[in-house]
Design a protein that fits this description.
The structure is a homodimer of 143-residue chains.
Chain A (H helix, E strand, L loop, with lengths): L10 H17 L4 H8 L3 H13 L3 E4 L3 E4 L1 H22 L5 H11 L5 H16 L1 H8 L5
Antiparallel strand pairs in A: 1-2
Helix pairs in contact in A: 1-2, 1-4, 2-3, 4-5, 4-6
Chain lengths: 143, 143
């Protein structure tokens, strides 16, 4: 499959862009120390990855301010967050506990193609609009 | 979440048990050389992992024959294959190409909890029994 049909560049890159966008939305910028805390990764590794993302044209470092996303980086980060939210929305239909949902989504999200994401989005949207169908689906669950 | 609620021990362990069961179904036993070819892993690594699986009581090595699964190993291998087939069956509803399905399933399968697996199974079973609903869901797909 062409790389462009995957929704994930790499797990690490996805997780960085996701957290950088969350931090920017929270504070306007992302400092290496905050990224390091969010991802539970050493500041040295964060600095390293930020240089790679900078070389790929995805982030810019502004002195005295922190890291911001380029337009290209922002588009990728938004797609990553949309994917996370779509998977979460699907699992929330089934009253799965919040921690399990978070862990499953964080694991699965890096491994799904655009086609799989769109299939899950279509199913989720349909079930959200058809509560009776959702009820019938849930009758098939064990216990 | 308790480890028992995950469907995956570890990615490597899952992949070994899955391929060992496939080989046993094909030939009656699994030889290290065949496992090594299926998983594209060196024979030395295979020998190593087989010793770990043996220590965990999941496989037994029989001289002049090869590796067979214990009852415990067989149950786990069957659950791994059931999970692979359920995910595949879900994606096949959406006419996603075979390679993409295989790649997504191989990636996702190690990251889903029992609850997520059961939700996907319920959705898949329902859609297989309700073609009109499936048609409506597919109308939501892009292009
Ligand atoms: Mn995520
Ligand atoms: Mn598999």
């Amino acid at each position: 499959m062409p790389a462009s049909h995957r929704t994930s560049g790499s797990t690490a890159r996805d997780d960085y862009l996701e957290q950088i966008l969350h931090l920017i939305e929270e504070k306007g910028y992302a400092r290496p120390i905050d990224i390091s805390k969010k991802l539970n990764i050493s500041q040295a590794s964060v600095t390293n990855m930020l240089q790679r993302l900078d070389a790929e044209g995805l982030v810019k470092h502004e002195k005295y301010r922190g890291t911001i996303l380029t337009d290209k980086g922002l588009n990728i980060a938004k797609a990553i967050i949309d994917r996370h939210e779509t998977l979460t929305r699907f699992l929330q239909l089934f009253e799965i506990d919040t921690n399990t949902i978070y862990r499953d989504v964080e694991g699965m999200e890096h491994h799904i193609s655009r086609s799989t994401l769109e299939a899950l989005r279509a199913v989720t949207d349909h079930l959200q609009h058809h509560p009776e169908t959702l009820r019938q689906v849930k009758e098939r669950l064990p216990e």
